[in-house]
Design a protein that fits this description.
single chain; 115 residues; mainly alpha; Nucleotidyltransferase, domain 5; three-stranded mixed β-sheet; 6 helices; 57% helix; globular
């Protein structure tokens, strides 16, 4: 994703790949909201979720129907840190929560090796 984002302004194929990724993520969020009957919040985590305001914005675009509204300034200013990026008055909040994926993989691997 990092390489695609670096090319998104110069290459149509990179822009298409990013747009398709965000479309699919938005589709899954919508499907889960339908199955769950709504939610209190959406959380972005992991490498892309923590470090890409552009991807978060593209995923949340057109999701106002369910009460999800990003604060553009908060979103742009938050990378690799924990915080809320939704508008204060939004019915559904959006958060960025950093995760340590490597330690989780290491712990799971160690657990598997013990058996």
């Amino acid at each position: 994703m990092r390489e695609l984002l670096a090319q998104v302004d110069r290459h149509d194929r990179a822009r298409l790949a990013v747009d398709l990724f965000c479309y699919r993520a938005r589709k899954y969020i919508g499907a889960y909201l339908a199955v769950l009957g709504g939610a209190s919040a959406v959380v972005f985590s992991g490498g892309i979720g923590e470090h890409s305001p552009l991807v978060r914005a593209k995923i949340c675009d057109t999701m106002q129907w369910c009460g999800l509204e990003l604060d553009a300034k908060r979103n742009a200013g938050l990378q690799g840190a924990e915080g809320r990026i939704s508008r204060s008055e939004a019915r559904m909040h959006v958060y960025v929560i950093p995760s340590d994926e490597e330690i989780l993989i290491a712990r799971d691997t160690a657990e598997l090796l013990r058996h």
